[in-house]
Amino acid sequence: xxxxxxxQAERFPIAGTFTISRGSKTEAEVxxxxxxEGKHGGRGECVxxxxxxxxxxxxxxxxxxxxxxIAGGADRNALLSIMPAGAARxxxxxxxxxxxxxxxxxxxxESIGKAxxxxxxxxxxLSLGEPEAMAAQARANAGRPLLKVKIGGDGDIARIRAVVxxxxxxxxxxxxxxGWSDANIRENLTAAAELGIVLIEQPLPAGKDQIxxxxxxxxxxxxxxxxxxxxxxxxxxxxxxxxxxxxDKAGGLTAAIALxxxxxxxxxxxxxxxxVGTSLAMAPAxxxxxxxxxxxLDGPLLLAQDRSPGLVYEGxxxxxxxAALWG
Length: 327
What we know:
The protein is α/β, with parallel strands linked by helices.
C-alpha cells in the first residue's frame, strides 16, 4: 500500500526565556512529520538546530526530498543510507517507528526489548544568567533530585557556587555548551569537583578539545556537540568519559540505539538528552533512556504549553508514552 508524507511547522511558547551560552529563545520551533499508510498514521517531531547548520526550511526540504522513497516503501534501515544524520532523518525515522507500531499493534517498547518501561528521573534545566538569578531558579527547583545548569562564560565559578548553595540536596550537571577555553578549564574543573558536581557536558568547542586528553578529569566529562553517531565514537576515546545521545543529532531512534550500544561496548557512560521540544519528541527518547546513566528529557517542562495528550511528568519523574501520543 502506498504511503504519504507530510510536514508541519509548529511553535510552542517557552515558559519565560531559555538561555544558553549561544543565545536565548522564547519558543520551541519544531517540525512534525506524519507518514500515513491506509488508515494508519505515524508521527515524529524534530527540532532544527542552527548550531549544526539546520533551519526550519532546510530540514523541511530534506524531508520532502525523500517523499518518493517513503512512498515506495523505504524502511528505517534504508533511511540510514539515503538521509544524513540530523533533525530531518529523526522526524522521518520516528514517524516510521510510530507507523509500524500502529499497523502491527506491537508497541515500540516491546520491539526494542523494553516491554515494561519504567518511569525515569529527568534532569531539570536552569538557564544561564547572573549568579543571583540562577540561585533563584535553583531555590525554586531545589526539591528536584537532578538539576542541569547552563553555564559557559566568565564568572562560571560564581554561578556554580550560587546554584549549589541554593539547592544543596540536588545532584548537579553543568552544561557549558562549548563555552570554556584552554585558559580556564583546569580552574573550572577543580571548582566543580570541590562543589560536588556530578557531570560536565561539552566544556570546550567540538574539534578544539584535545586538551581533555592531557588533563585530569576530577569530574566526568560528557561529549554533546562532539558526538552525533556511532561512527564518531572512536575519536572520543581518551577525551570524554560519557556521551550525550540526542535523537536530533543521531538522526532518529534507529541510529540512536546503535550509538548507545556502541558507546556501552566502548566503556562510555550514557546520557540521553533532548532539544527543547514537545512530548512527541521526548517519547522515543524515554524508551532509549531506560538504562541510561543520566536522563535529560525535560523539554516539555520548559514549555508554557505542551501537546495533548503528552507525556506524564510527576515532579521530575517522566513515564513512558501512551499509544495515543507515540509508539
